[in-house]
Amino acid sequence: MRVTNQMLNYMSLNGVTSVTNKMLSIIEQGNSGLRINRPSDGPISYSIARRYDKQIQQNDRYLENNAVATSWLQRQNVSVSEIKKAMDSAAVLLEEAANGTTTPEQLDTIAYELRQTMKQLMSAANNSFNGDYIFGGASFSEPPYKEGIAVDSTIGGITAQGNPSKTIVLEAPTGNVQIPSTTDQTFSIVHTDGTKTTVTLPANGTTLDLGDGVSLSLPNTTPPTTYDGETITIRPAIIYTGTLDTNDTFKIEIMEGQLMESSGVGGLIFGGRIDPSSTNADVPLTDNTNAFETLGKVIAAIESHDRTAISNMLAPMNQSIATIVNYQATLGGRLNRLSLAKEMVTNSTDVSKKARSDVEDVDPVQLLERERALEVQYQLASSLFSRIHSMNLINYL
Amino acid sequence: MSITSLLQTANSIINTASAAQMAVGQNTAGMNDPNYHRVTTTLIAKQNGVSARFTRAYNQYTERSFISEATSQYRWTTQNQLLTNIQSLFNESGERDGIGKTLTQFFTSWSGLSTNPSSTGSKVEVIEVAKTLSQLIQNTYTSIMKEQDDARSHIESDVRKVNSILDEIASLNRLISTNSGNNFTLLDKRDSLTRELAQYIDVSIVNSSEDTYTLTTKSGYTLVSGDSAYSLELKSNVVSSDLIANSTYTGSVNFTGSSAHEYKIETVQGGAIGTAQIRISIDGGKTWITNPATGDTVFTTTSDPTTPIKAGELELWFDAGKGALSTGDSFTIVPKLGLFWSSTTSSLINITPQTYADGTENTSRVTGGSLGGLFAFKDGNAGTYKNQLDTFAKELIWNVNRIYSQGASATMTTISGTQQVQDTTVALGTTQAQLPYGDRLQAGSFTLYEQDATGKLIPHTIQFDPAKDSLETLRDSINKLQNIKASISSSGTLDITGANGASFAFGEDTTGVLTALGLNTFFTGSDAITIGVNPTLVRNPSLVNTGKVIDGSIKIGDNSLALAISGLQNETIAITDAFGNITKNTLFEYYTATASRVGADIASSQFQGDYHKTQAGFWYAKGQSESGVSEEEELMFSMEMQNLYITGTKLIDTARTMLDSLLSVV
Prior knowledge:
The complex is a heterodimer. By secondary structure, chain A is of the alpha+beta class. Chain A folds into 2 domains: about 35-145 and about 245-360, CATH 1.20.1330.10; about 155-230, no CATH class. Chain A is built from 8 helices and 15 strands. The longest helix of chain A is centred in the first third of the chain and has 56 residues, at about 45-100. Chain B is built from 12 helices and 27 strands. In chain B, the strands form 9 sheets. In chain B, strands 7, 9, 10, 11, 14 and 15 form a 6-stranded antiparallel beta sheet that branches. In chain B, strands 3-4-5-6 form a 4-stranded antiparallel beta sheet. Chain B has a 3-stranded antiparallel beta sheet with strand order 8-13-12, with no helix packed on it. In chain B, a hairpin with a 5-residue loop joins strand 17 (about 445-450) and strand 18. The interface between A and B is large, with 64 and 67 residues.
């Protein structure tokens, strides 16, 4: 085969260019630490590495969310513990009251203490985190609980207005009286010493003025409602204004497809009465497990010195406390789940980083080996190029 | 032999040696010219001396093979260089940011907002990330367009260059055929021009004899035949028809829109325009576009430009009153810049490089040289990436807005749609309405909440059927409400306002009409170039929806909407491109597949370029081995000729001595 000068030039230049191109790639890999510096360096590896990027980015956010969810649940935990403690002390006071040896004065003192406990409970149930109320379900902007009054009676539809400082016990007129009535009707206020004071409902009226700004609204129905000496008790109550659907709670994304319920539905934990202006269904807790309602009834029983009623509240008090304890356990479980999720997400990040590194990062040892080999190749190509070009027949002529 | 004969022989030797030395000199001078073909000297002994025959070292087979590989090398290296230019737009290796990472950041910012749904700071973050994402998508798209424009400029320049070279070769052919002397320099020049031509377009040397030199494209279109040069032309938006022998149709197809693809239209059921049925392909008839209205691949012809056939990126209609179509009649639309071969009969033949969807190339078109690479990049690669970016943006906008438009953050007293309707009297689901997402609308209802005097949100259900309801009937349906009034703006958007100071909010929408009309939406636009963030939200990020209406009021703490949008990042959705092809993937995977495709295209073009470079190198070396100049060979031959020359002079000296001796005797 004839060998021409152009062939030698072409071959030599090609060899050196090829080596320098490879060295450029090695320098780039050394500088970046990456084997895949652009999609064309390995389209599949590139795509896999970006998938890991996404996972790591998502996990960073999940960890931040986890911290927020943990704060929410810890805040709830503190509040529920406060409430549990207050309920425990209320239970002790109830037991004292149920003791047959307590004097009426002692009962009044216990009732006073329980009213304070009720305020304390409401305050704890209205706790907030970063300005958001934690026991309102999906309703964050307004406190979920407010003070109110409740009417207990076998006759439905009676509501009370005002802010009585003590429980009021009324007796309806006897003799199957129908209200609204065309004549005046007499109701009796029953005092703790057994005495009674009468109050008159005007003819055709349904609003009974009880004095001190307190009034009672009786059902204005057709046909009229029949009364026959029923007891009507006006007592303190806590009104719940939050949401009740467990699906509407505030949820935080802690892992892919995993949501953590971070707000509590107060109505389902501590109970309370439903705001009459709300369209919500009634609190789906039974009377025996509704802590606020139990406390309200306990106060009513003690303030009216009704020892039978006081004794009857012991069981509901314990069951209400049990409901709160159950929720404490739920919170504990959720916090454990958060901890586990955090660990899983952290592990997922570690695995993703390792996998991304395996796919994308350069192996320094291999890189150095390749650099050394290319160095030798470059020196050889350059040396051959200069040697061959220094050979010339003219030198021998 | 006489002394005179001896002198004649010596003269012959000296002349031949001198001529041979001239050839050596010529070879040595051309030694570093890669297009130079050496002159070989053959000495022929004759009775009274020696003569030399000079030939040009040229192997037609080697040259053809070299040209064939070199033109492929230029095609792939050109394509590779252009692809490399846009790779940086998609590159997110290491710490580099791009659309993929920003997309994930966009969704995680919604996840962050879901942990504090009333936080204006978190809403600002969502807006800022969304703005960045929109800008990145727009910038990437426009950067690809710019590369396409650059490719177009190069195409125009290359076509001018090709036509100039063809003229030059034809002129050379004329000179070579008429020149009776040594044509070696002219032949070298012609070969050099042919090699240069191969840089721009695939070339086949059909006949390389001196006076009937013929060049064609690889697919057989004559470029030069003897002293006749053909030319190439660039034309945009060309429609050509191919009617069967007895077809009576004398009209053509009209279209609006542009595309990187050629559209082939084939009549599958002949008849008058309005009844005849056609099918449409963007890959030369290998596959057929799905008709979204029927689900099959058949479209009914129309001559009404207001109710055109919507196929892929084009809208089509036929000329009316031009006869009936026959089964088998076909048309080709080149809705872009096309390359045409101009024959002597003035007819234009489409030779625009064409790559099918399966990656194979139309071998009846130009396939090589820089023109092959430029067209493959402009129409094949860049066109595909732009389509995919458009599809990605379209799906991102639709899916985010579909969730977002059913949410609320506060009641509003007025809102303007961001999407325009061209014809407000026609059903919104029809093509005449020209509503960007009109084809996605479903029959059903949506909820409009009206706030009453107590502040409570009262739900009203508005029924909607995209096949029947126009923008005007929708407006009228809303206007039946007591305190919410709708109107149509002069630009064709729907505006809703609370009357008598009333405010309102949106709720569940089973139809998609809120999204399509841009009412209560997060993103504006419908593709990669128009995507943006709703300016109302940019001005006031606190209005970003995170929840929905529950029990008659908007719960500030509700984060269900934010969670749903965040969850979209892992959701597999049906992604439909402009041609009705459906891919089931997450938005991130769809985008990353585009970036990987860029990488794969570059790697493939790099491989092809390297492969053909190696092949061309082999044939170049072989050509050099046959036609190139060896310095040593020339020096040795020169020495031989020097000795021959000395021999000649010695003979003269001998003859002179002999003659002197003879004369001294006399």
